[in-house]
Description:
This protein is mainly α. The chain has helices at residues 7-14, 20-66, 83-99, 109-147, 154-166, 172-180. It starts with 6 loop residues before the first helix and ends with a helix.
Amino acid sequence: xxxxxxxxxxxxxxxxxxxxxxxxxxxxxxxxxxxxxxxxxxxxxxxxxxxxxxxxxxxxxxxxxxxxxxxxxxxxxxxxxxxxxxxxxxxxxxxxxxxxxxxxxxxxxxxxxxxxxxxxxxxxxxxxxxxxxxxxxxxxxxxxxxxxxxxxxxxxxxxxxxxxxxxxxxxxxxxxxxxxxxx
Length: 183
């Protein structure tokens, strides 16, 4: 260092071995990435609104057909959705479906109507759970994107990346169950 200790080398070392252009490129890249993330969030918001509308349509159709949809009677279409209770209902439904309907060979219309009604309620419950998970995931992503700026420490950025990739509000078992229902 001392042999080549020009003012230019000393200033480079004092700046943390950064080139002046690096900072400009980093800020430009950050702005570009944030713009892309905001675009992602905006598209996700549209999808959330569409899902909410579909869930309301399904709920009202079932209520018109069956009179009352007990699973959704107290649901507000927000993050307050109790995923565990709804998951328990789905598990109970699956067990009833495997035990309750398979033992009878009778083709009674009442039994068929009960099964169809139960199937529809099951699908609607699954849809409500999926909506709740997607909404919570969206809200987490929105908070992360809104917190991004130049002053965020690298440790916090790392935790944002981990939360984004872990998707803590998405239950894989329920997602697989939903995928199985798609013909």
